[in-house]
Write a structure and sequence with these properties.
With 455 residues, this protein is mostly beta strands. It folds into 2 domains: 205 residues, no CATH class; 214 residues, no CATH class. It is 13% helix and 36% strand. A hairpin with a 7-residue loop joins strand 8 and strand 9.
């Protein structure tokens, strides 16, 4: 362990010395030329890459959920729907005598991401689940959560992540007021559903959350592709926010007095799950998945249990022929394929390795925290690139401190922690096509290595 820390210190000093230099072919300190330390650049090391299937995604208890339908001309159709459970209000449920419904709305607070046709109108539908979900279940994206036939609510809408909405808020004993809320999707629910499942239901169903969910089952939120215009789109929603809920507005008549009441039923994300389906039929992705041994000039990365890019560095050990060297800087540069960014590219990519048991592991540079924001897989708009610091990773592979098994690049949430980013992501929806490691790729990915010889 002591020797490892000494090697790490040497590496960090090297990074400090060399990363600020402007000429990588002749990197040196401002000292006597006879005593200068000179670095050499290698940017021709072979990188082999291929598109492979991503694992299914765990979708229980997420901070954000994907909903939508997108017929991507490059990636094919993706359908993401969500099954949610409801909780009882904090107060005792009592609808009073002969409640008269004014309106009922399922509110879904938008999160921060949308991909697709900005002009598309999505037909968002709400159905009632056939079976309830439970908190203890570990739901994955390939699991179905069936709904009863028909709908209990719907809305044809454009996705709007930015603009606030004006709603009427009931103030007991005073005139109602209009307030503004953060951008949200408000889906009207049918009066017949509210009447039968709330107003006319036995009060025993509202004693506990468990009894309530045994009765109500839950809601399925989906997009009807046949009633959606254009290519459609996928959006993320913050269903854990208190703004995401079912809102009931109704009246009670007591003698000559009319009372207007507002009651909310929050969404329980601990007992909610997403179902996500991709269809790659007829796409370049299908071709690559079916013939993985073939080299292609473009690779594909898609979240939501879609696809990722597999990397190997087959001739890395040939660097030993240079003698005893220190890797001062290693940087993988990935370029977005021209013409494929018809929708916004993934905001962040994440590079990780696997061990002998094929378990996902952070690369040493991430573990050491020496990868700054510009080199941590964030999308660089000006250059249409992603960059990854791999200095410690390449040094450890070269020195035999790590064995080279598999390296992958996946699409992850821009705000995910490194540990969260290791798992397949269901909280981001944007995809990207990148230049491969093929020598003939017009937008070839490159591993740039700056090294010095150690006497």
């Amino acid at each position: 362990m002591k020797l490892y820390k000494q090697d790490l210190l040497t590496l960090l000093i090297s990074l400090f010395i060399f990363t600020g230099c402007e000429n990588p072919d002749g990197i040196g300190l401002d000292v006597d030329p006879e005593n200068a330390i000179e670095g050499k650049l290698i940017d021709t090391l072979t990188v082999r890459s291929s598109t492979v299937k991503e694992d299914s995604v765990r979708t229980a208890n997420l901070p954000e959920y994907p909903i939508g339908y997108l017929n991507d001309p490059l990636f094919g159709p993706t359908d993401a729907k969500v099954a949610v459970s409801l909780d009882l209000p904090s107060e005792t449920v009592n609808f009073g005598n002969s409640p008269i419904l004014d309106s009922a709305v399922l509110v879904l607070k938008y999160s921060d991401e949308y991909t697709g046709d900005v002009n598309s109108r999505l037909m968002v539908e709400v159905g009632q689940l056939k079976e309830r979900l439970t908190v203890s279940s570990n739901y994955f994206s390939n699991a179905e959560h069936a709904a009863n036939p028909g709908t209990v609510g719907s809305k044809l809408t454009k996705v709007n992540l930015k603009d606030s909405v004006s709603i009427i808020q009931i103030v007991k004993g005073k005139p109602d007021i209009t307030i503004k809320k953060a951008s949200q999707l408000r889906i009207p629910l049918t009066a017949s559903f509210i009447q039968s499942k709330f107003f006319d239901a036995d009060t025993a169903h509202f004693k506990t959350n468990s009894a309530f969910n045994d009765f109500i089952k839950g809601l399925q939120i989906r997009v009807n592709k046949d009633l959606t215009s254009g290519a459609g789109g996928l959006a993320t929603f913050n269903l854990a926010d208190t703004a995401s809920r079912v809102e009931l507005y109704y009246r009670n008549q007591t003698g000559t007095t009319t009372d207007t009441t507002f009651m909310v039923f929050p969404i329980n994300t601990g007992a909610s799950a997403a179902t996500i389906k991709h269809n790659y039929a007829g796409t370049p992705i299908e071709t690559q998945l079916n013939t993985p041994a073939t080299t292609y000039e473009v690779n594909y990365i898609q979240p939501l249990g879609g696809v990722k890019t597999h990397l190997t560095f087959p001739y890395l050990q040939n660097l030993k022929s240079l003698g005893n060297i220190t890797i001062n800087k290693a940087e993988l540069v990935v370029q977005v394929e021209s013409g494929t960014d018809i929708f916004s590219p993934a905001p962040r990519l994440f590079l990780y390795r696997t061990d002998i048991a094929e378990q996902r592991q952070l690369v040493p540079d991430v573990l050491l925290g020496i990868s700054d924001a510009s080199l941590a897989g964030l999308y660089l708009t000006a250059t249409k690139q992603y960059k990854f610091t791999l200095t410690a990773y390449i040094q450890n592979l070269l020195n035999g401190k790590l064995d080279q098994y598999n390296t992958y690049i996946s699409a992850v949430d821009a705000l995910a922690t490194n540990e969260q980013a290791l798992s397949p992501s269901a909280t981001t929806v944007s995809r990207v096509a990148i230049g491969s490691g093929s020598p003939t790729a017009p937008f070839k990915m490159k591993l740039n290595i700056i090294y010095t010889k150690v006497n």
